[in-house]
Specification:
By secondary structure, the protein is of the alpha+beta class. The chain has 2 domains: 82 residues, Roll (SH3 type barrels); 41 residues, no CATH class. 24% of the residues lie in helices and 38% in strands. The strands form 2 sheets. It has a 5-stranded antiparallel β-sheet, with no helix packed on it.
Length: 131
């Protein structure tokens, strides 16, 4: 089953059951999963039932509580994007950047420094940040 929805704003959404997708959860973290179902909610918003690749973990609040693991999520279809393997490369590059791997001080020579500057600029471009 495939769902295509065009709104008054000219936005087109194309999803299919079994499609691997990604989106950002309420904490701004990227989550990925597979579309398990599609439906319209009571406000006629197209919703996707997603089985997540990894659970969203809500830690225990008290010692007698236990953490919650959420494996399924219902999300508005307009918040989803097709999953692309490039996302994994971007995620890995962001982790390296956070650890200071692309910092100019880690460069052994001018050529390496130029490559690191290109990597920082490319990462800023694909993540929508200023270089």
């Amino acid at each position: 089953m495939t769902a295509t929805h065009t709104s008054a704003f000219g936005v087109e959404i194309s999803l299919r059951i079994g499609q691997h997708v990604r989106h950002w959860d309420h904490r701004g973290q990227r989550v990925t999963g597979v579309v398990h179902g599609l439906c319209l909610d009571h406000d006629s918003v197209l919703q996707a039932d997603i089985v997540l690749d990894a659970p969203i973990v809500i830690p225990a609040v008290n010692a007698e509580d236990h953490e919650l693991r959420i494996w399924r999520q219902y999300s508005p279809a307009h918040e989803l994007a097709p999953f692309d393997d490039r996302d994994e490369l971007i995620d890995a590059a962001q982790r390296l950047e956070q650890r200071g791997f692309f910092a100019p001080s880690t460069c052994a020579d001018d050529e390496t420094a130029a490559d690191m500057a290109l990597m920082r600029a490319a990462l800023a471009k694909v993540t929508g940040r200023a270089a």
